Amino acid sequence: MPELQKVATHELTSEDVQVQVLDRENVMQTYARQPIEIVRGEGMHVFDDQGKKYLDFTSGIAVCGLGHCHPALVAAATDQLHQLWHISNLYLTAPQAELAARLTSISDMDQVFFSNSGAEANEAAIKLSRRYSKQKYGAHKGEILTFMHSFHGRTLATITATAQPKYQEGFGPLPGGFRYIEEPTIQSVKSAVTEKTSAIMIEPIQGEGGVRPFSTEFLHELRDFCTRMGFLLIFDEVQTGAGRTGTWLAWQRLSVKPDIVTMAKSLAGGLPMGATLATEEVAQAFTPGAHGSTFGGNPVAARAALALIDVVMAPGFLEHVRRREQQLYGELVKLAATRSDIVDVRGLGLMWGIQLKTARAGEVVNRCRDVGLLVLTAGADTIRLLPPLIVTSKEIELAISLLQEALG
């Protein structure tokens, strides 16, 4: 293991206090802010306003997939900024058209709708699946089944799709048309089906729900069941897409093709970009005026996404991700074997959860920050690791050392 660089706990300055006051008095307090101000990012690291350096194993919650300020993305976005920022989707732009062609090709889908976020991409998937099903089977269709512990976004429809009461509290009345599947078994799926059911929506790996991968066997059974019943299968790959699992999309590694797949987060490497991709038959349900987005697929974000695709799909890059996956998994298993407070290690690619025996994940995240490592929670008892895909072997070794120190 590399020698640890000891770093002092961040001490608040008058400028820090001023930023905190401005934030507290003027920003709606929907976030439990960490007590540091990040001012710069470079590759695998971010720096606070005191110059302290942090190894970032959050990727901005899986957004900065190529790390911070990747030169290829900076160059592409900067070049586009000097040409055209926005013109609305009433007009054609080459960056959006080229991105659509690249994206449908590498995703093995036929058409795409562009938006700005994962919630919007999932909203589009919900609307598209309902419109398709009503046109094909009748007006009674439109119900969508989702799984317990899921997370699909923060809009009214997507928090209703999210089968976690803590995200829904205080926001009723919630829209209808969603039912929840209790367990990842076909029998549980069958128990949730009604005559109104039109689609099943699932994250191949539940992120906010605790980094919970579904088994490949179950996903294959689910695909077969949806095909037999005439239901659409929707994969929410907002967090798992864009190379996070060692293939462009997780379904390609699992060999389970959905009818609709959603992406966002890392798609444009940090600029707002969401995408809803579908087969040609399903996509035809969207006609002019059926859906829209003011900023979706804007030229700057599209150029950044094209640059990211060039990097991720270059020969050897995804093999690098899978090598680092094996290393990170192996190190986490070794760490768990030495500690009684770790009860499970689970994930895929560069998306891992460390489940603790007690609900102290937030405490460990804070300790990691103090020693210079940024990690996340995924529930009260699970630590989540989402390093940028460019992570090196030495950086994984350092992260494990810092994590071990933070665990105490």
How would you describe this protein?
The protein has 408 residues and is an alpha/beta fold. The strands form 4 sheets. A 7-stranded mixed sheet has the order 4-12-11-10-7-5-6, sandwiched between helices. Strands 1-2-3-15 form a 4-stranded mixed sheet. A hairpin with a 4-residue loop joins β2 and β3. It is globular.
In short:
The chain is an alpha/beta fold and 408 residues long. The protein has a domain at 71-312: Type I PLP-dependent aspartate aminotransferase-like (Major domain) (Aspartate Aminotransferase, domain 2, 3-Layer(aba) Sandwich), CATH 3.40.640.10. 40% of the residues lie in helices and 18% in strands.
Write the layout of secondary structure elements.
Blueprint: H1 14-26, E1 38-42, E2 45-48, E3 53-56, H2 59-62, H3 71-81, H4 94-107, E4 111-115, H5 118-137, E5 143-147, H6 156-161, H7 165-168, E6 178-181, H8 186-192, E7 197-202, E8 205-206, E9 212-213, H9 216-229, E10 232-236, H10 250-254, E11 260-263, E12 274-278, H11 280-283, H12 299-312, H13 317-337, E13 342-348, E14 351-356, H14 361-370, E15 373-374, E16 376-377, E17 382-385, H15 393-407
Parallel strand pairs: 3-15, 5-6, 5-7, 7-10, 10-11
Antiparallel strand pairs: 1-2, 2-3, 4-12, 8-9, 11-12, 13-14, 14-17, 16-17
What are the salient characteristics of this protein?
408 residues; alpha/beta; Aspartate Aminotransferase, domain 2; four-stranded mixed β-sheet; 15 helices; 40% helix; globular; disordered N terminus
